[in-house]
Amino acid sequence: MGQFRLYFELGYKHILDINGFDHILFVIALCAIYLARDWKKIIILITAFTIGHSITLAMATLNIVRVNADWIEFLIPVTIAITALANILKPKPSSSKGIQLNYFFAIFFGLIHGLGFSNYLRSLLGREASIFQPLLAFNIGLEVGQLLIVAIFLVSSSLIVGLLGVNRKEWTLVTSAIVLGMAIMMMIDTKFW
């Protein structure tokens, strides 16, 4: 149980690490078009991201896939920028086409995000006899951390849209524009150039 807790906390802290805020930005970009009443859709969306993340994390940890770390560090903010830009270009926050696109972003871009942490996790796992339990614990911790971020974001969104009377579309546009700007800065700051 101690090993499970160790990797659970590692996953939980990974997603909440303010120094590695790329995951936080991506989760916010994914959820920017939703309000608290959409909580079922959001749980599916976040779980899709975790599934994508888990697949490549496991494959990279098992040395099935190897990708240049500089490429991944560049592609992660690209995924954030694309998701935020899609929110800006959507005609309505609740359009079903936009929601379906977000599910695609969640699972496909989750694959890229999973590669971002794989080198570190591979070094932590070292010569573990089985990586199943550590990977499971890490991904459950990741999911819990993501749901905490989503809960905070949705409560904030509901307060701003519901209580302060800010237009929902404007809130989505402002949130997505801020995330887009931060993602562009992250792309510029990568070693890729």
UniProtKB/TrEMBL annotation:
Q: Which InterPro entries match?
A: Put_HupE_UreJ
UniProt keyword rRNA processing present: no
- Membrane spanning segments where? 20-36, 43-65, 71-89, 101-120, 140-164, 171-188
Cite the entry's keywords alphabetically.
Membrane, Transmembrane, Transmembrane helix
Per the record, the domain of life is Bacteria
Spell out the protein name for this chain.
Answer: HupE/UreJ family protein
What is the native source organism of this protein?
Belliella filtrata
